[in-house]
Design brief:
Layout (H helix, E strand, L loop, with lengths): L11 H13 L5 H9 L7 H15 L4 H10 L19 H10 L4 H11 L10 H6 L1 H11 L5 H9 L12 H5 L2 H10 L5 H17 L1 H12 L4 H10 L1 H5 L3 H6 L8 E9 L2 E3 L3 E10 L5 E12 L5 E13 L4 E9 L11 E9 L2 E11 L1
Helix pairs in contact: 1-2, 2-3, 3-5, 5-6, 9-12, 12-13, 12-14, 13-14
Length: 370
Amino acid sequence: MAELLKDKYPVEVAEKISKMICEVHPTFDSVGFVGQVRQGYEQLELMARARKIAVALTAFLPADFETAQDILLASLDSSAELDENNSVASFLYMPHTMYISDNGLEYFDISMQALYQLTQRFTAEFAIRPFIQRYPEKSLALLAIWASDSNLHVRRLVSEGTRPRLPWASRLLEYIKDPTAVVRLLELLKDDPELYVRRSVANNLNDIGKDHPALLADIAKRWLKDASKDRTWLVKHGLRSAIKRGEKGALQVLGYDEKVDVKIKNVAILPAKAQIGKAIQVSFDVANLRDCVTALMVDFSIHFIKANGKANPKVFKLKAIELGPQKSHKFSKKVSLKVMTTRTLYTGTHKVEAIINGKNHALGSFELVR
């Protein structure tokens, strides 16, 4: 069994942090600090463990925030025996970022400089969001400067920290409503030399498209004009969810015309009565009836029955293909019907549809039984 992520973040993390602080602030109560962290630590998950350490930092560092953050930042360069092979080694600094966001909200300038240093060691994408919410204009102005910083982690913070729907983080509701200010920052980063940064930009675009599909399509269209290979990849990655949802604007940007002349044949949905815990096989042929090559994005959806009896479609990716004139191509995919923590299955008739360039085509249905 794979080692749990939290098990790579033992109480020794607090001991390392304490050692680092003691090297620059010898009066730090290491015994009391580690003792507080240790209480109930083993029962906690990863994020809660980091939060517990951050709370202990608040309790044992000086009450004056400016003094405390000076000590904390000075400790960053002190010696600590880190295991560089540990995949969560950089997580050592996660409590530091939490401490800044918990205690430094009234101190914008020094807190942002602290996050500037910390994000180069462990991402400050979560910690910076309260500052963006409290000081939107000052934060965005500073982030615009950081977009040209020499450090790739700082540049990535600009795009990742402003994601409207960043997973496991508070939503930036103002930018969910109107992402114009965020888009201006992304414009500065769309040709960043680092894939690490460009992927973050694409993820931000993906977030924006969930609430503003037309805006996403417009950005993609503009950015693809005279685009480099790297920017083209960024745009396509940013469109991935929109493509999966079959949004016409996104598909058209990538050259998939909704108006195609195709025929679906040889449909097979097997077994007709599928059992929960087993699998269903969906296959069908798509024929291009035109006398020219046609670009097709072909997916399919299963309308899974929910607890309230209504159906909700889940899209399964197949492939993009350029189909020659009067040619056919077979598509097939097996879908697991096992119950998962993220999906509960209910018995009943489940409709299946092909999705070709964003347009739905009925394939048939199957009965899901126990």
